[in-house]
Design goal:
The protein is about 25% helix and about 35% strand. It has about 210 residues and is an alpha/beta fold. A hairpin with a 2-residue loop joins strand 10 and strand 11.
């Protein structure tokens, strides 16, 4: 499967590269014809720093950001984004003039939660929600509902790759979109042409990675 990797470069920063594998893959909400591999962007310092700068470049500089909530193992990118925001003097209401970078936990029912020691980083804070990959927006809906429950105010959404332009009135800021991935398609489970033709799945995929079948 890895031998099929195709590399795409961000239009506004050629130091930022996305790797994609064509095939038949299942996400938690759809079937897709590309696995979007953001592993390098999430885990390699130079790549994480470069994509962090690319994302911050696209955020309106009057946006208030107190906390970055990192999904899908994006903590390294989140830390670099926090450093960029502070260096560029983005507005924060935090008294110590620094940005929180936190990640949620998921309980046995797969519900997104924050322990009591992290709630103060969410409640009444202006939040940037950071994801690795957004395909249908279903995970985003759940995340926004959770953050609202804890009293957070989401002022920006960033995703390394996104097939969705906006959600609940907020634009999704991304380094890559479907326009950068030639022929990218997502299908509902019961309307997948690969399944209809009898083609088996290559892997289950999510923001963390893939598991071959």
């Amino acid at each position: 499967m890895e031998s099929r990797v195709v590399k795409f470069f961000a239009k506004d920063n050629h130091k930022v590269a996305l790797r994609a594998i064509p095939g038949h893959f299942a996400t938690s909400h759809s079937h897709v014809n590309y696995y979007i591999d953001v592993t390098g962007l999430r885990t390699r310092c130079k790549e994480a720093s470069a994509v962090a700068k690319t994302l911050v470049d696209k955020i309106i500089n009057t946006t208030i950001i107190d906390t970055i909530v990192c999904m899908d193992g994006c903590e390294v990118v989140g830390a670099y984004m926090a450093a960029e925001l502070e260096a560029r003097d983005f507005v924060s209401t935090n008294s110590h003039e620094t940005v929180y970078v936190i990640t949620p936990e998921f309980n046995s029912n797969n519900q997104m939660i924050f322990r009591d020691n992290l709630v103060s980083s969410i409640s009444d804070k202006h939040i940037l929600l950071l994801l690795a990959s957004t395909t249908t927006g279903q995970t985003l809906h759940r995340s926004l509902s959770c953050l609202k429950y804890y009293g957070g105010n989401v002022t920006a959404i960033c995703s390394l790759f996104s097939a969705v332009d906006s959600i609940q009135g907020l634009p999704i800021i991304s380094a890559f979109t479907t326009g950068d991935i030639s022929g990218y398609q997502a299908y509902e489970f019961d309307n997948c042409p690969f399944c209809q033709s009898g083609r088996k799945l290559d892997a289950f995929v999510n923001g963390y990675g893939y598991s071959k079948l």
